[in-house]
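To whoever is on call:

I kicked off a structure prediction for a single chain this morning and the downstream step that reads the tokens threw a length-mismatch warning. I double-checked the sequence; it's 53 residues and nothing unusual in it as far as I can see. Pasting both halves so you can look.
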Amino acid sequence: MAWVSCPQCQGKAKGGRGCLIIFLVIITFPIGLLFLLVKPTFVCTKCGFKFNT
């Protein structure tokens, strides 16, 4: 889990890659490394805005 700044309200946003993505990378290694190309999703704790980095 990572903390980043929200682009709308400059509050803290938490999120990142989900457990499913990490699981798929491990199970389908080495082809599963392509799952790391999926952009992580973050949600602002202040305004609820969802965004990708």
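Update from on-call: the warning came from a stale cache, not from the record. Cleared it. Sanity check on the structure: The CA atoms of residues 21 and 36 lie 7 Å apart.
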